[in-house]
Amino acid sequence: VKTLSFLENVKIYVGFDDASSAALREAHAVVAPHFGPIIDDFYEAIEAHPGARAAITGGAAQIQRLKGTLMRWIDEVFLGPHDEAYFERRARIGRVHVQIDLPQVYMLTAMDRIRVQSLTALRNAQGLPAGSAERMITALHKILDIELAIMLETYREDLLAKNRTAERLATIGQFAAGIGHELRNPLGVVESSAFLLARRLEQLKISDPSLTKHLEKITVELHRSNKTITDLLELARNRPLKRRPFAADAFVAQALAAAQLPAGVEVTVAGAEGVVIDADFDQLQRVLANLLVNAGQAMNGQGRAWIDVRREGARAVIRVRDEGPGVPADLRGRIFEALFTTKAKGTGLGLALCRRIVGAHGGALTLEPSDAGAIFQVVIPDATDRAPG
Amino acid sequence: MAADETKRVLIVDDNVGLAENIAEVLEMEGHETKVANTAAEGLSKATSWNQDIVITDYRLPDFSGAELVRRLKQLGLMVQAVVISAYTDDTTVEDARAAGAAFVPKPVDLTALGQLVRA
């Protein structure tokens, strides 16, 4: 039994066939002269809605580029070919919407503006053969419903991935906490015994360089092991937020200190002065320090990074940019997954936990589109601005 | 109360090795010590010994170190209490403090613990 692909299945469901494709190709000639106004209307609607506008971070230049993309997109809606490759391209566009955190509601409503305006153009067309406009309208409804089904599917995929991440984190958390505490006990005995040995040697007035050296080694390595355990427990623990407003500049300075970046990394901070962030100071500092450490590692400890802080109404936005190689396109969707790492010695916990911390604030941690280096953006809405739940 | 500088310290920890080592460190500093490995054993030893300080782990096999401190206080059995724990979450720390004990995180800084006992 042949399993139907997602596209085949949806096509059959809405009754989209070769005749539908043909009707759309005919409709292209009718609607194409209206593409310009349709696209302008599309982005005007986005700009009029803060929730939708928030997904566009690159200003007018980005909108200009996006208009070009939308033009190609509408062209393809009518011209097809409506095959598996079409479906793949559409799914990719859908995933971009998910990545930039465009709320689903705007994906649906934006699609509706295109639908309504295209239908109007078809209805108003003069001199079409009898029944022809009706066929085109039906085909347009069908293809746009398929488009919506594809887009919704990408949102569902994303939700499933986030669920997997949450489950993995919970498992890792319990596992790490269990092991951490189990190791603490023997380490505590070793540490106190080393302490007693040192004291005993002192009492006996024994000063032997080799004994001292080995005792020191034991102590240093114990300290390191304890630190690893502490970090792991700290990371794995799901702490409740302690939110309060604080000054961004002092916050950034502390995160920079905590990141302990190598001397070769030069960080430029902009906009932090006078900005107030309403968040859990310690947890958000962990996020910023983590992003900075990643930036430093991505540049092999040598290069420039930028921290940009600004307030946008009832939310604070922090961006961290570096001039490293950036995140490969095929990995962009996965870097926030727990246990996923691109580093030789990474644990795959850092970004997953960062995203969880930011998510707990009702905010979003995203990897922004970029031509050079990586840009991570943290958005923290003020506490009073959060939606319930 | 024991003589100046010398204190009677009851140490309660189910990590036997650590309890013994804490005792040894404090004995080196001239204090008297007793070790128990469960809260119940700690309670029982405390009733038959006039200790100045109880140092107890928070997580014990039978009941918590904070609960032990509360019971000892109800019985009027000691003056000073220190709860030690690898669990440094707010609930643990607050429970220990609410019971009237000082909180020291694990891994235990033995020098600092010695100072706490001397003070």
Describe this structure in words.
The complex is a heterodimer of chains A (389) and B (119). Chain A is 62% helix and 12% strand. By secondary structure, chain A is α+β, with helices and mostly antiparallel strands. In chain A, the strands form 2 sheets. Chain A has a 5-stranded mixed β-sheet with strand order 2-4-5-7-6. In chain A, strands 1-3 form a two-stranded antiparallel sheet. In chain A, α8 (132-203) packs antiparallel against α9. Residues 385-389 of chain A have low confidence and may be disordered. The longest helix of chain B is centred in the N-terminal third of the chain and has 13 residues, at 16-28. Chain B is globular, with a radius of gyration of 13 Å. Chain B is α/β, with parallel strands linked by helices. In chain B, 42% of the residues lie in helices and 21% in strands.
Summarize the structure.
Chain A is an alpha+beta fold and 389 residues long. The radius of gyration of chain A is 28 Å and the shape is elongated. Helices cover 42% and strands 21% of the residues of chain B.
Quaternary organisation of the protein chains: heterodimer
Gross morphology of chain B is globular
Largest sheet of chain A: 5 strands, mixed
| Alpha plus pi helix count of chain A | 12
Give the N-terminus to C-terminus distance of chain B in angstroms.
14 Å
Q: What's the pLDDT, averaged over the residues of chain B? A: 90
Question: Strand count, sense and closure of the main sheet of chain B?
Answer: 5 strands, parallel
How far apart the termini of chain A lie comes to: 45 Å
Q: Order of strands in the sheet with the most strands of chain A? A: 2-4-5-7-6
Shape of chain A: elongated
Residue share in β-strands of chain B: 15-25%
- The class by helix and strand makeup of chain B works out as alpha/beta
Counting DSSP E segments of at least 2 residues, the number of strands of chain B comes to 5
